[in-house]
Write a structure and sequence with these properties.
The structure is a homodimer.
Chain A lengths: L4 E9 L8 H23 L4 H14 L19 E7 L4 E8 L5 H11 L4 E3 H11 L6 H4 L2 H13 L11 H8 L4 E6 L5 E7 L9 E2 L9 E4 L3 E7 L1 H6 L2 H12 L3 H14 L4 E6 L5 E2 L6 E8 L3 E6 L2
Parallel strand pairs in A: 3-4
Antiparallel strand pairs in A: 1-5, 1-12, 2-3, 2-6, 5-6, 8-9, 9-10, 10-11, 12-13
Chain lengths: ~325, ~325
């Protein structure tokens, strides 16, 4: 029997003690702890890593402070459009969705794409039609609405952020807005099977149907028993060109590195290319890493020996 | 000055001499030769690999027998929805679009995403809105319409192919329909800069907003000067879970393989996982590979020494 292990994140970016109240910090910590408990329950009862990451991400989606499910940011049109992806390291099957609306748990829909279709990624109207056909749980706009995300949209519109005719000089700003809250989980179960899941509400004031790394297998999410399971968070565009989630796996497979060294090298590469963010990863020995290159990352893990929840760098 | 090199494909799949007329074969060959000439013109005048792959893919998109641009397959609703992606190996920047309609050259729009936005992938309504804002060349439905693709849709609807409630047993059939015609180009220019571009009309009778590998950097398209430029064609879902285009690059970077060995290993892995198709790739020394694991692949290359156009395995 393998060592079970679970790691989660709730987004990486400019997260500073100076701008955090102790009440808000407590809330974040309780959201992370609750999600860890949900996933650990599955794993410790002998459940699969796939079920564990799905249940964990559902809990994170239902927690309103993270930018996924309830609490998602608003697009330019004032809508919540959500992306999610999941991958099973045992079978190397995967499912993902982009731009779904009013789906209570986008990660469940991603899993249905994996299990009920011959496809990997469904997007936009088609994905919403698929959600209806699968009769997943829907929730009204009010469920997803949070005051702080609405305020973010108004601020972003006022500042003209995420204008597509304005490229590089806006990149870091965009990163800061977007990065706060994508959620993810990776797990190793008793049989040594790995799985990864990621879910996001996307980018505040998003226009033009931008798809980030969260919907993309290889970029934001990857799992393969022989190497590792990875879930990323940060400025998505850099994770796409760096094929970041798969890059960790490739360094293990092809360079023979262990998880920690592979993860450090991948993060170094991300930093070199100018990308902000981080990721969580687990291997089939139950080793966990949670590297990031920005101020903070909402994150936590649980193993037989420890439960840890952290926000800042130190 | 580096050796310039250009390779192209027009899709891989069940392409048998027995089902091909000599007239049709001549047409295909002339379409491939014309595209090679267009790209070679750019490279031989000292142009960049990025300009060369864009111009080459435009020529392939305008050729009605391939499933990209003019000649794209029809979705279930009788529409042409197109995906494309492009990557610059020198800068590691990339652009991609999914589900665009009535855009004459989707690959040009992908390049505009790369150059005019801070994003990588734009999809659906937003991508179409972006196309309007960029004032790219549009064409009416009649331009994209081809009799043989319309007939394919009617046949597919009659057979109930690409039904999402029917998974594995349909996979190979879907592969056969989809794989005939995605186009792509890879090039190495005089400065040793690499680029890759891929474009497709997607899958006949496609529903539910399925996104294939062509729109996805790392899966269907990848370019990096230090390793190689790759453009894939085949059953897209397998290229997504295998992160196929980037996998070739990773085997070069992390295993120290040359292009040919890396490409062979990646193709082997694709075959092991059950994926049909192939890819073209070039490195900064001007080496070219064009491996595939199905009956045929419309393909060709040009170097200082040779121009080759092939369809079948032998």
């Amino acid at each position: 029997m393998k060592k079970i292990a679970l790691a989660i994140h709730g987004g990486a970016g400019t997260i500073l003690r100076a701008t955090m109240t102790s009440e808000l910090e407590r809330e974040y910590r309780s959201g992370l702890e609750n999600a860890l408990n949900v996933g650990w329950d599955v794993l410790s009862r002998g459940g699969s890593s796939l079920d564990a990451v799905e249940a964990t991400v559902c809990a994170l989606e239902e927690f309103p402070l993270f930018n996924a499910g309830r609490g998602s940011v608003f697009t330019h049109e004032g809508k919540n459009e959500m992306d999610a992806s999941i991958m099973d390291g045992k079978t190397n099957r995967a499912g993902a969705i982009a731009f779904v609306r009013n789906v209570k748990n986008p990660i469940r829909l991603a899993r249905l794409v994996m299990e009920k279709t011959p496809h990997i990624l469904l997007a936009a109207e088609g994905a919403n039609e698929f959600a209806k056909q699968m009769a997943v749980e829907f929730a009204p706009d009010e469920y997803f609405f949070t005051e702080h995300r609405w305020k973010q949209l108004q601020d972003a519109i006022a500042d003209g952020r995420v204008r597509l005719d304005h490229a590089d000089d806006r990149r870091s700003e965009i990163a800061n807005r977007k990065s706060l809250g994508t959620v993810g989980a990776v797990a190793c179960d008793q049989e040594g099977n790995l799985a990864a899941a990621t879910s996001t509400g996307g980018m505040t004031n998003k226009k033009f149907g931008r798809v980030g790394d969260t919907a993309l297998i290889g970029a934001g999410t990857f799992a393969e028993n022989e190497t590792c399971a990875v879930s990323c968070t940060g400025h998505g565009e850099y994770f796409i060109i760096g094929v970041t989630a798969y890059d960790v796996a490739a360094r293990i497979k092809y360079k023979g590195l262990d998880l920690e060294r592979a993860a450090n090298e991948t993060l170094e590469r991300l930093t070199e290319t100018g990308g902000d963010g981080g990721f969580i990863a687990v291997d089939a020995e139950g080793n966990i890493v949670m590297p990031f290159n920005c101020d903070g990352m909402y994150r936590g893990y649980r193993t037989e020996d420890a439960q840890v929840v952290k926000i800042y760098r130190d």
